[in-house]
Amino acid sequence: LRKMRSSLEEKINKVSTDTEKTNNVVMELRTDIREIKDRLEFIEDRVSGAKRKGEVKEKENEKIWDRLLDLEARSQRNNNRIFGVPEGEETNTNNMERFVQELLADLFPSLSREDLDIERAHRTLQFCSREGQRPRAIVVKLLCYNVKEEILKKAREVRFFEWKGEKRIQIYQDLPKEILDKRKKFDGIRKICR
User: Which residues does the chain have with pLDDT short of 70?
Assistant: First the structure.
């Protein structure tokens, strides 16, 4: 009986020390978990703050981009693009502005040459087109906005101009690529409305 009792006391003491060790480990784990939770809250606060700042910056960037696009569109306000003029036609004249002035005078006899004040004219900055490819467009900056609008109005009515026999010339407003892309999204709806 004494042996049993001493054996039981030893086992109880061992269980007691094991329980105490386990309690200490659990307390350490609780402390660690509290620290982890605090750190996570801190990180979540920083992440949510960064997200808010990112959203604000994104809105600011959108506004800046819209302003830039508006400025680009305004700088192209007096510009037209002429499509379909074969490459090399302008070599007969030494001056692209003079060539375009003569071309527009041929296409629009109602406009006098004095009305066709051209500040600048040039081919688009693409590779020179090869035989059989579509020729590069000519960008024209007119000094008078009203003349530019009159040219566009007549160009919308006629759509294709015949020049030197069979060549099909088209004239459109010069717009930034982003605006053209936005307009393309509505092509289907525009066709339905016609």
Answer: 93, 129-130, 166
